[in-house]
Amino acid sequence: MIELIQFPWSPFCIVQRRILEYSGAHFKVVNVSSGDRSVVWRMTRHRYYAVPVLRDGRRVVFETDNDSQVIAKYLDVKLQLGLFPRELDGLQSILWRAIENEIEQEVASAYLGSR
Fold it and tell me: Nearest Cα to 81, choosing from 3, 20, 4?
């Protein structure tokens, strides 16, 4: 089973959660404390301390930099979603920066404001 390790309010985690929901796959959400990331640190073998992190069986997937999209692309391939068509690679890399910077921040603000 796929596990999404996250902060529930993180705009970066919301995207991964929505991809999983869209896919219809069974998954588990594991919320961690922003003050204690030891679970993430251990899970990634001391290579990463941020969220989201995805655990799929024995495989642990996490981002390699701010614009990497490793988790989304992993889910896309594994679940055969067609979210990243090869013919749109260049355009997607440009649009993704806007999605990550402006749109995700607005989604997070709306999410936090509705609580």
Answer: 20
pLDDT digit string, tens, across residues 27-60? 999 999 989 999 999 999 999 989 999 999 999 9
**Type of residue found at 94:** I
Q: What top-level class would CATH report for the domain 2-113?
A: alpha beta
Neighbours of 4 (CB within 10 A): 21
51: buried, middle or exposed (CB in 10 Å: 19+, 13-18, 0-12)?
buried
In angstroms, the CA 54 to CA 70 distance is 10
The Cβ of residue 83 has, within 10 Å, a number of other Cβ atoms equal to 16
pTM of the model: 0.78
